[in-house]
Design goal:
The structure is a single chain. The strands form two sheets. The protein has an eight-stranded antiparallel beta barrel. The chain has a two-stranded antiparallel sheet with strand order 6-7. It has helices at 2-35, 162-170, 254-261, 263-269, 277-280; strands spanning 37-50, 64-74, 79-93, 109-124, 135-149, 152-154, 185-187, 210-223, 228-239, 293-307. Helix 3 runs antiparallel to helix 4 (263-269). The longest helix has 34 residues, at 2-35. The chain has five helices and ten strands. With 315 residues, it is an alpha+beta fold.
Length: 315
């Protein structure tokens, strides 16, 4: 009889535990499903940069289209985790604002494709309650970005320019050999246009084309219904490089560049119509005190894959 009662008591204990923990898990699952959500969608807009070849931060001509993917996971009503991958481009040109009659103008320019991969935390300044079918929710975000760039410049062959005359005097054939390159877009990083890793400027290291940045921005989410959300945001990426535009420090004598990197390096390093070799080396080509930044203006449309429903589902 004692053995039988023991077995009955054990069954009662097991059933009680299953009912207790099963009920708890049921409630927790309902709460998790009601408050958490996973969204996936598209983000498009514009990209731009600010640096040595931009007169102002919001240089209107510098805004270029961008497009990408975005996913958001919200474990609750305040914090949202997000991942995004965006492709765009950036550009800067002295001739957007320089006096074209000034023979001593730098006349520098660049363009670059831009890949941005960002992981961030969004803080919703208004709780995104599951019971609300629609609404407007402001938010701020920050995190970490990995970006890839590759600045290029278009070579314009001008045999009457100062740099052509100087190079033909000191390294005959170095400039005239570039005639077939006229009009082509040339990658600037391999050319070391500021003397990177030359014997005389070995302390200047070649910049990496894949780097990290700190994103900081904010926006608005427009909850259209329980499935679709429209978002508008702007974010700045604070980089740790001054070479998004291939411009940072000082000029180097083109003869030095020609000896190690060829005539195209000399020609794209010095693009001013007027060339004064006696005062060129060491004169400012850019401002190394401030790193370059880039910004992304985005409009997103996301679809909620699960969660954040006003009523609890049945399990």
């Amino acid at each position: 009889m004692v053995a039988i009662m023991g077995k009955i008591n054990n069954k009662i204990l097991v059933c009680t535990m299953l009912l207790f923990f099963g009920g708890t898990l049921h409630v927790d699952a309902q709460r998790w499903f009601r408050t958490s959500s996973l969204e996936f969608g598209l983000i498009g807009g514009a990209s731009h940069y600010s640096g040595d070849l931009a007169q102002s931060y919001f240089q209107a001509k510098g805004f270029k289209p961008s497009i990408g993917l975005i996913t958001r996971y919200s474990p609750g009503e305040v914090v949202t985790f997000r991942l995004s991958a965006q492709y765009g481009s950036i550009e800067g040109r002295d001739d957007w604002y320089e006096d074209q009659d000034d023979a001593n103008r730098r006349n520098l320019s660049f363009r670059s494709n831009l890949w941005d991969f960002t992981g961030a935390i969004e803080v919703n300044l208004r709780r995104m309650e599951a019971s609300q079918e629609s609404g407007v929710y402001p938010y701020l975000f920050t995190g970490a970005s990995v970006f890839k760039f590759n600045p290029e410049a278009q070579f314009v062959y001008d045999i009457n320019s100062g740099i052509a005359e100087y190079m033909e005097q000191n390294a005959p054939g170095s400039y005239t050999s570039l005639q077939t390159t006229d009009g082509k877009w040339i990658e600037l990083q391999p050319l070391a246009t500021e003397g990177q890793e030359t014997t005389e400027f070995n302390d200047r290291k070649r910049y990496a084309l894949t780097q990290i940045a700190i994103p900081l921005g904010g926006g608005l989410k427009f909850k259209l219904n329980h499935k679709w959300t429209l978002g508008v945001e702007y974010g700045v990426r604070f980089t740790f490089t001054d070479y998004l535009d291939d411009v940072s420090t000082t000029y180097v004598d083109p003869v030095r560049l020609n000896g190690q990197y060829g005539g195209i390096s000399s020609a794209l390093s010095v693009r001013s119509p007027e060339f004064i070799p006696a005062s060129l080396e060491g004169s400012p080509r850019g401002n190394s005190d401030n790193n370059d930044v880039y910004g992304l203006l985005g409009i997103s449309l996301t679809y909620r894959l699960y969660g954040n429903r006003p009523n609890c589902p049945s399990f």
